[in-house]
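Extended Data, panel c. Modelled sequence:
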Amino acid sequence: MSIRIVLVGTTHPGNIGACARAMKNMGVTDLALVNPLHFPHEEATARASGANDLLEQAKVLGTLAEAISDCVYVAGASARSRSINWPCMEPKDCAARLIEESRRGTVAVVFGPEKSGLCNSDLDHCDTLLTIPTDPAFSSLNLAMAVQVLTYEIRAAQVGAKSVEYEPDAPLATSDELEHFYAHLEQVLNDSGFLDPDNPRHLMRRLRRLFIRARPDKNEVNILRGILTAVEKKDAPDG
């Protein structure tokens, strides 16, 4: 089982250490940090309280795309409402899905900055939205608490999961492969005049939702990119 916790833009180093401790308690050890404000830091080490090895092994990266480039399934944690509906799961169902998808490759759960959470451009990289139900009168959940809730559900689902053998026709496309496909698709739509280059985000965000639901594998992405290349050649001026 390969499940990665990704923390984006964490501002308080103590929260990084507390998240590492929460992860290690539940047997999740792959931690990636995207643009942390302070790391390494003595407060992160102090709050890790025995999970120092996770901090030492943590990958520190510049972008979310880098952190999930090898992932076949990504959940983004958020409590904010969105203008475009994302597929949405609560922790128990999300944990079960993560374990199922981890049989096909690395999966990740992404948590945003403490104050603002993940932005829509971060969620563009995600397959589903993870929400943790809280009392509406006090819905503020600490970052490490959120990681603890999710990793507990992963542990509980892992202990209770039955072995399932599944051999897909081809490995699922990774996040990096899908990003290259989206860039190729956007370029072809721009060149064809179908996409307004001054306002591409809304349409591309909906197209991402479409392909996320479809879960294309590597062969299917190659076919789609082959189609796009054929369109480009057909539309190219005679040289």
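The first helix runs from residue 13 to 25. This feature is highlighted in the accompanying rendering.
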